[in-house]
Amino acid sequence: MHKIxxxxxxxxxxIVAGPALAQDNAAQATDASSIIDEIVVTATKREQTLQDxxxxxxxxxxxxxxxxxVRDLIDLQSLVPSLKVSQFNAVGQTNFxxxxxxNGNGNDGIESSVGVFIDGVYRSRSSSALDDLPEIERxxxxxxPQSTLFGKNVSAGAISIVTKKPSFEFGGKAExxxxxxxxxxxxxxxxxxxxxxxxxxxSGGVNKRDxxxxxxxxGNDVNDRDRWSIRGDALWLPTDKTSVRIIADYNKISEVCCxxxxxxxxxxxQFIGATAPFGLGKPVGNPATKFDRDIIFNTxxxxxxxxxxxxxxxxxxxxxxxxxxxxxxxxxxxxxxxDVDFTGAxxxxxxxxxxxxxxxxxxxxxxxxxxxxxxxxxGFYQSEKLSTGRTISYGTDIRSFGDxxxxxxPAxxxxxxxxxxxxxxxxxxxxxxxxxxxxxxxxxxxxxSTYFQAxxxxxxxxxxxxxxxxxxxxxxxxxxxRLTLTGGLAYLNDEKDAAAQVVLRDxxxxxxxxxxxxxxxxxxxxxxxGALGGLQFYYGNTPNHAPxxxxxxxxxxxxxxxxxxxxxxxxxxxxxxxxxxxYSTGWKAGAFNLSSDSRPPNANGVGRTASPxxxxxxxxxxxxxxxxxxxxxxxxxxxxxxFQSNAFxxxxxxxxxxxxxxxxxxxxxxxxxxxxxxxxxxxVTYLDPKYDSFTGAACxxxxxxxxxxxxxxxxxxxFRDLTGDKPAGIPKWSLSTSATVTHDFGNGYSGxxxxxxxxxxxxxxxxxxxxxxxxxxxxxxxxxLGLTNAEHKLEVMLWGRNLTKDDSLIATFPTVAQDGxxxxxxxxxxxxxxxxxxxx
Length: 840
Prior knowledge:
Elements: H1 2-14, H2 32-36, E1 40-41, E2 48-49, E3 57-61, H3 62-67, H4 73-76, E4 83-87, E5 94-98, E6 114-118, E7 121-123, E8 136-143, H5 147-150, E9 157-163, E10 171-179, E11 183-193, E12 198-209, E13 213-215, E14 221-222, E15 225-239, E16 242-256, E17 261-264, H6 267-273, E18 294-295, E19 302-317, E20 321-339, E21 348-367, E22 373-394, H7 398-406, H8 411-416, H9 422-425, H10 430-439, E23 457-478, E24 483-504, H11 517-522, H12 529-532, E25 558-573, E26 577-588, E27 591-592, E28 609-610, E29 613-626, E30 629-641, E31 644-648, E32 653-657, E33 660-675, E34 678-693, E35 697-698, E36 719-720, E37 733-746, E38 749-764, H13 771-774, E39 775-789, E40 794-801, E41 809-814, E42 822-826, E43 831-839
Parallel strand pairs: 6-9, 13-18
Antiparallel strand pairs: 1-2, 3-8, 4-5, 6-7, 8-9, 10-11, 10-43, 11-12, 12-15, 13-14, 15-16, 16-19, 17-42, 19-20, 20-21, 21-22, 22-23, 23-24, 24-25, 25-26, 26-29, 27-28, 29-30, 30-33, 31-32, 33-34, 34-37, 35-36, 37-38, 38-39, 39-40, 40-43, 41-42
């Protein structure tokens, strides 16, 4: 801990931070302050310099992305500490969090609180890849609600990725990378004129790599890379006042992902691993070797994702204002197959997937001119059709698993039975006894072959159509040469129509174990929940013990909502320092729970839907320019009323609204070039989160104080009260820093050495996993060493990520259908390689 304090003090002394020092010519300049003034961003939908824009924004340049080997948005978080990105059980599931806010991973009914925009196009469902993009000009991360400029689903922030436009001068770039785990990556882009008014760019890439985890059951790699993409980009300038840009892209991912390791093996998992006749004798994960990244699945987890889209942007100079229209259509399909019990036993396998079609239209008008008044008005429309679902089917070992967990029939019960029945049940399991006694009244029930049979399970499928639109505006008024007042207003409207087509194929889960009807006919006590209730994996705690599909007589399947959000800001230019204060609000529409934990209202306390989120934030900031660098500071107090908690409970997702979640903190972004050959960058984020009110959090078995088992029924409460607790997954401290040394060798040769450090303080990753298992931080060191030749426009770079082999977990969760066991996703190990890049 002393090392961290010392490092933090050193960083602040050097004024380290944001990775935006950045263009190629910047490395050759000696006056950093003049370079920083040239960092142009479009965070406010108009071009401004980074230091002039009065909001908290981080900018990552193309050079930083290349030299830091940022291959996807997951890697980007090592440069922007207020951004956290995670990928869990499938390559198409990426969760974005800014300042601790953001959710939606794994449950297609929930939208992200962080909007991702690529060349102005909203990506409602974004995988984590950046590989399908050509040359990236910059990535802007905007923190806090952005509804008055971006419309919907930016209640926590926005990520704007800007790629380079086609060029009217012929040129391009090609690069090849080789690395450990047999990495082979090829990327190329070429651009040039077709005519005096038309230029095009064609880009493509292939990324292949062996997996860094091994499935010991099959011997195959897991967490590999196998993806390719192609992208066409055309820029037409018919007049000096008109610009038309058309982009078409296609990308495909076919990978074995994702590795899950054992953190704790509870009784159910121990039974799977125990030698027969005391267990199934199947291999299970060893928590002590979780960072060997050896997994135990009876099948390999496979993923296939195909994404394609077409967008068009028209910019028209009207003289008094600039008109921009962006139209886009995207389609994404994904499918995956996974062993969901994460053991070598054939208990259950899951096949899931989705198909998403999205149409978006944005239209905005921004004023021009040098007067004191600037304004922007616009509208955004989205129509999306979603079909999603999964099939979970039991395997060949499920019956032995059920027999073992149910335990043997107690001697006292056998003694209470009529004498002719006793031999048939002696030494048998409670599960077998249930079938046997039921068969005496219902002959179709066969002992040993009715419950927990291969092929049984659940078909869990949903559709959702969504239509949303927003009207947004913002105005800036320069009261004096130094004081600017800003006001923004947005109207957001959202409507969702959802339907469930769930079929339960697990007859045990459909049985009311507290009143078995056949037992009453035999004159036996009907309540055997204590013996078998833990084996009811679906709907065991609902009154009807079955799904209730919707729409139905009491549920319309329709969810509507609208909200007016606003922002107010005052910015003052002191010369070398710009200061601002602001208050803004945001909103995220209500959500459907499209998972097996989706229940009719009041069925077990978990509703079918979650209400909207209302966000508010007070913020004050300073942006200082000085000789050789800059220093940016933002202090904020942010809160979400009705936070949509989406906790994975081991089978499905418990979607409920927290009363209020808040976070206070600050962010520092800065850069400093003390010498012409040395550049220092970095960032610090401090967060102090709290559940101001959350009485409906999902109950968990490890919290025995707030989730006690009822001895009469063997059940736990559905909810616990987390009011006053710190939300999981939000680290108190996040820090990233880099140092780049450059040297001119003469004759056109120059070199650089870049080192990065990425730190996150320890935090409980999940509220559904015990703190002693789920509390992790990270300490990553990345580096690159490069040599460039200006005459031949050639660059050779050696690079490495996680050089110190820091081991940590990125997420933890209750193991599926094994109460008391826990699993997690390990981080990537050390990777290294060489990249050769040729520009022409």
